[in-house]
């Protein structure tokens, strides 16, 4: 087990804004990948496949962070705060909805010692 944090950040673009939102999200990758504790940060877009017919928002960041502190530091970076303010919260933003969740690979009540 590990202290890694796995994040899925999903985005639902406003009508006709998927390509533009995807490009804006891609622009966040370069600086984020330089952050301490960032192990993976890749924006992806949903593709149709008969073996994976689940539903999802069409744009998803797949992130892996070394620990919760690294993830939380990322969330507070000005570039990330500005992104959410401009493209998610603003009336004229590109995202109609978003869903950001974090996960662990540790079972509940895991009692490994802190190292």
Please, could you describe this protein's structure?
The chain has 115 residues and is α+β, with helices and mostly antiparallel strands. It is 30% helix and 29% strand. It is built from 4 helices and 4 strands, in the order E-H-H-E-E-H-H-E. A 4-stranded antiparallel sheet has the order 2-3-1-4. The longest helix has 12 residues, at 78-89. It starts with a strand and ends in a 12-residue tail after the last strand.
With helices defined by DSSP (H or I, 4 residues minimum), what is the helix count?
4
Query: Shape, please?
Result: globular
Biggest sheet: strand arrangement: 2-3-1-4
How much strand? 25-35%
Keywords:
4-stranded antiparallel beta sheet; 115 residues; 30% helix; single chain
Strand-helix topology:
Layout (H helix, E strand, L loop, with lengths): L4 E9 L4 H9 L2 H5 L4 E8 L13 E7 L2 H9 L1 H12 L5 E9 L12
Antiparallel strand pairs: 1-3, 1-4, 2-3
Brief summary:
The chain has 115 residues and is α+β, with helices and mostly antiparallel strands. 30% of the residues lie in helices and 29% in strands.
